[in-house]
């Protein structure tokens, strides 16, 4: 973690021209229950506070441009961030243009960052269980047109805290049998879902083995992370990636 404690820097061997971060909930101006660095406009926070928080994020990370924010809908839609002039409905963005900032917002769902090993292509993905089931990870890799990549799994709800119904497990296993390894049964109708493991299974099936991160829990780490499942009305972390 950086010394200011307002963002995480991915621990991955990315090329030197790749820059990335996940903002934490500290360092902003929003008040409870959004305290304090909430960049999301759709959660009920004061618009002026959100605007100031976004300004602070851009300043503290020395971003080269305003992030390309998405209207996230738990879909499998991917956009080209370099071609976007307005907020678009999508749950991932890609670019090969220097200075374009791909960004997603999460509060339990899994943020994934991807960069090609040559440092020319990047992507940011918002992946809840619906997005993972729908193929958002595979669609993003297809949009990048390479699997010669590094992947960082950012802060998401931990495997011990994410309980889902049997119908969720059934949907995953019927789509791809190896997804079975991402679920642990707790009773007749409930399972614990390991969203990190589900992502790793999807990535491995696409030939991606260089996967880092995945050791956070937004639900239990109340000081650093927002959690929708824990608090319901809350802010969001921003996970961002750009290249020079």
Please explain how this structure is put together.
By secondary structure, this protein is of the alpha+beta class. It has a single domain (7-159, 207-243), classed as CNF1/YfiH-like putative cysteine hydrolases. The protein is built from 6 helices and 15 strands. The chain has helices at 47-60, 129-134, 136-144, 166-175, 195-205, 228-231; strands spanning 7-8, 18-23, 70-71, 78-80, 88-89, 92-95, 102-106, 110-116, 122-127, 149-153, 163-165, 183-185, 190-193, 211-213, 237-243. It has a 6-stranded mixed β-sheet. It has a 4-stranded antiparallel β-sheet with strand order 1-2-15-7, with no helix packed on it. The protein has a 3-stranded antiparallel β-sheet with strand order 11-13-12. A hairpin with a 4-residue loop joins strand 12 and strand 13 (190-193). The protein is globular and about 50 Å long. The two termini are 22 Å apart.
